[in-house]
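Figure 2 data, in text form.
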Amino acid sequence: VQLVESGGGVVQPGGSLRLSCAASGFTFSSYAMSWVRQAPGKGPEWVSRINTGGGSRYYAESVKGRFTISRDNTKSTLYLQMNSLKPEDTALYYCARVPYGSRYDTREYDYWGKGTQVTVSS
């Protein structure tokens, strides 16, 4: 199993970024997927989750209305569109595979990428 994130960078407050996560080594369409972030000195924070078909999407209150999760099962790729970015969104962003029966508890996620850094600063 391999998960590789990309698309991070430095952006000004109010800006946008689109993160991608390329998955391989498993049947991507059979698993729910999540984005998780970790700011310096803090623990992991669950950001968003999408079900296998992409029809059900869930967001943390801190990003609801600004972030959109999506997936392309034909490309085995997960996305996170981030708009209206704020300095408090600064973190290392990970994609993670959600095992069957898991939802929001990041300690249950079984595979993680290495992360992509997002920095929101003027």
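Caption note: DSSP finds no helices and eleven strands in the chain.
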